[in-house]
């Protein structure tokens, strides 16, 4: 072991450089392990400026690499090149250690700095059966009334705050049984001030509306899950999945399922998949099934030059989840993430995109999904979902409550005689 040979200054210099390089590697590993344990971090790596996150992963190897390069140079007569590389190794060890500890401290401390305001909200505990209030709709009794919005993005100047407030006021006037907020509530999840701005507006405009938010990719940024749970999932709450990020909500007339898909399938692990299939399999065959998520499935869109990714017909979500929806007869899937409003249909499953709650619209679609039936671009709004005994009525509303488009989905139960389970479709 020449690296640890005692009795000369070179061996001691090697040992010192190696120890510091190992410290740097350990600090870098600890930072990355913590970062990628956070919600949405793996999706951030795959979808947004991947070169930066690859540098953060690989920078811990730089000091060791420089030290390894110095070893062959010790055989030449002049020792200056090897000393120089060892010096660079020591300097890089210090810088990598400092950067790793700084990033780790930021990820831990940022979402915990400042005080989250107490909000006057009617938050719904997913573990409690949802009661509904009936109302007549075109001479039919509405058994359950839902409102859905997504991508409000409090905290950025790219959002139209007036449109957002108008949408909330329209929802408050509608008095739904439940308002689903499908994520990207804030621009940067670790920012307490942005969450406080969101909570302030929600408390002022929809304090009495039963509310159930999902977590989007922006909500999760840099440890934002801590503030999301503190704001929207108190310690007294629970869910059938054991997670605050995905669950089903029991109602008398429908099965409501919330998924944890901030970016794509990065969080769709075996546990969530098994839970989802069990929920769908055992759902009451006489009730419609409506699934909610942040990221979309079928959707029109464009090729994002900044991310170098297709922002349409989601290449992860479609193969991983749509066969499950089709197998168990899901009636409607509602998502955000894409800043349009759109209605689509594929293999008898309907999809609604509602990411238009005030945030800057995505560009005019360069790719129109073959599943698309209707789309509104550069139009702010939300969706109302009214369930009657025969239909799911999907109403796309603009920011002032005007109906832009309506779809009636007749839900047909998939029954097996004597069974209370949905039979998977062939």
Task: Describe the protein's architecture and organization.
By secondary structure, the chain is of the alpha/beta class. The chain has 2 domains: 2-111; 118-410, Purple Acid Phosphatase, chain A, domain 2, CATH 3.60.21. Helix content is 34%, strand content 20%. A 7-stranded mixed beta sheet has the order 1-6-5-4-16-17-18. It has a 7-stranded mixed beta sheet with strand order 7-8-9-12-14-13-15, with helices on one face. The chain has a two-stranded antiparallel ribbon with strand order 2-3. The chain starts with 8 loop residues before the first helix and ends in a 16-residue tail after the last strand.
Q: What does the overall shape look like?
A: elongated
Mean pLDDT: 91
Task: Indicate the CATH topology of the largest domain.
Answer: Purple Acid Phosphatase, chain A, domain 2
Query: How far do the termini sit from each other?
Result: 64 Å
Task: Using the 3D structure, state the CATH architecture of the largest domain.
Answer: 4-Layer Sandwich
State which percent range the strand residues make up.
15-25%
Largest sheet: 7 strands, mixed
CATH homologous superfamily descriptor of the largest domain: Metallo-dependent phosphatases
Whole-angstrom Rg:
26 Å
Secondary-structure-based class equals alpha/beta
Order of helices and strands: HHHHHEEEEHEHEHEEHEEEHEEEEEEE
Helix amount: 25-40%
State the assembly state of the protein chains: single chain
Task: Compute the number of strand runs.
Answer: 18
Structural domain tally: 2
CATH class of the largest domain: Alpha Beta
Q: Helical region count?
A: 10
- The low-confidence runs, each spanning 5 or more residues with pLDDT under 50, are 1-7, 414-419
Question: Within the largest sheet, what's the order of strands?
Answer: 1-6-5-4-16-17-18
């Amino acid at each position: 072991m020449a690296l640890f040979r005692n009795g000369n200054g070179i061996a001691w210099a090697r040992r010192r450089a190696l120890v510091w390089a190992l410290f740097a590697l350990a600090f870098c590993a600890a930072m990355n392990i913590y970062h990628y344990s956070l919600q949405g971090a793996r999706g951030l790596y795959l979808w947004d400026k991947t070169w930066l996150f690859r540098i953060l992963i690989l920078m811990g190897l730089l000091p060791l690499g420089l030290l390894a390069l110095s070893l062959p140079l010790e055989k030449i007569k002049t020792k200056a090149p090897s000393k120089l590389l060892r010096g660079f190794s020591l300097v890089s060890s210090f810088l990598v250690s400092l950067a790793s500890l700084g990033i780790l401290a930021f990820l831990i401390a940022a979402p915990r700095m400042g005080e989250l305001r107490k909000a006057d909200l009617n938050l719904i505990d997913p573990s409690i059966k949802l009661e509904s209030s009936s109302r007549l709709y075109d001479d039919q009794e509405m058994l359950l009334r839902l409102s859905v919005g997504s991508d409000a993005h409090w905290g950025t100047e790219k959002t139209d705050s007036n449109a957002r407030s108008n949408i909330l006021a329209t929802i408050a006037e509608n008095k739904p049984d439940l308002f689903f907020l499908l994520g990207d509530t804030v621009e940067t999840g670790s920012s307490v001030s942005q969450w406080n701005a969101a909570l302030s507006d929600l408390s002022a405009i929809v304090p009495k509306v039963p509310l159930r938010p999902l977590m989007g990719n922006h909500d999760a940024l840099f440890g934002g899950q801590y503030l999301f749970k503190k704001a929207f999932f108190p310690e007294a709450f629970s869910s059938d999945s054991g997670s605050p990020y995905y669950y089903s909500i029991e109602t008398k007339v429908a099965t409501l399922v919330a998924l944890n898909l901030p970016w794509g399938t990065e969080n769709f692990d075996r546990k969530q998949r098994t839970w989802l299939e069990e929920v769908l399999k055992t759902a009451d065959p006489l009730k419609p099934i409506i699934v909610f998520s942040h990221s979309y499935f079928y959707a029109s869109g464009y090729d994002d030059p900044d991310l170098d990714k297709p922002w349409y017909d989601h290449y992860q979500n479609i193969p991983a989840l749509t066969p499950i929806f089709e197998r168990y007869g899901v009636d409607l899937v509602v998502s955000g993430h894409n800043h349009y409003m759109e209605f689509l249909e594929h293999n008898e499953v309907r999809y609604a995109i509602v990411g238009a709650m005030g945030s800057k619209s995505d560009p005019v679609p360069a790719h129109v999904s073959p599943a698309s039936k209707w789309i509104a671009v550069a139009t702010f709004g939300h969706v109302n979902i009214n369930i009657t005994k025969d239909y799911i009525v999907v109403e796309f509303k603009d920011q002032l409550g005007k109906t832009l488009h309506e779809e009636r989905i007749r839900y047909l139960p998939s029954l097996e005689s004597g069974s209370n389970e949905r039979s998977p479709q062939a």
